[in-house]
């Protein structure tokens, strides 16, 4: 199959900026449009979803994703709404619910359906909470109480606050760290805007990772939240 590399640097700006760029929204598709744009426009980390041979019954979903959405997005910077609707119709057939074509859904529900149930990809994240049993997942949704000192936070701050408040640790360094921001939904948005962190430091989020003592500089033996 044809493939186009993800957009980088100046090329990304020239191809993706301007009118009639990005993924065209239609009929509550914003959750899927934003997820697909984030996963594929400028990174190849999940390109295995586009090319790994899957069972014959699921290749239609894969070909729509690759040929009608990702390739046009990377080539011209624009995807028509009918292409996403084509994918939504296939997901409705594969899923347990019939509302993928018209209702606003949670991005995590979409990712779990396409990654786990349809394409059978191994979970991307392994988390542990408070020494309990490990749990596998495909993305991490930030949950946190309103912080008065965080007016315009960046992603680094939000991830650290969320992991700390939930007593969570990453069991291992993830190959891909998909994070859902606390800014979705029509009724309430916790932050008016969030600054993207171009790099994410997960040193303090890793379970049993050697870290520096903030007092003496040696290897730390105790951790205080």
Automatic annotation (TrEMBL):
Keywords, in A-Z order: Cytoplasm, Hydrolase, Microtubule
InterPro entries linked to this entry: Papain-like_cys_pep_sf, Peptidase_C19_UCH, USP_CS
Is the keyword Nucleotidyltransferase assigned to this protein?
no
Q: Which PROSITE patterns match?
A: USP_1
Q: Which Gene3D superfamilies did the record assign?
A: Cysteine proteinases
Q: Domain Peptidase C19 ubiquitin carboxyl-terminal hydrolase, which positions?
A: 22-202
This protein's GO cellular component annotations are:
microtubule; spindle
Compartments in which it is found: Cytoplasm, Cytoskeleton, Spindle
Single GO molecular-function term? cysteine-type deubiquitinase activity
Any one Gene Ontology BP term: protein deubiquitination
Recorded protein name is: CYLD hydrolase
The record lists the lineage as: Eukaryota, Metazoa, Chordata, Craniata, Vertebrata
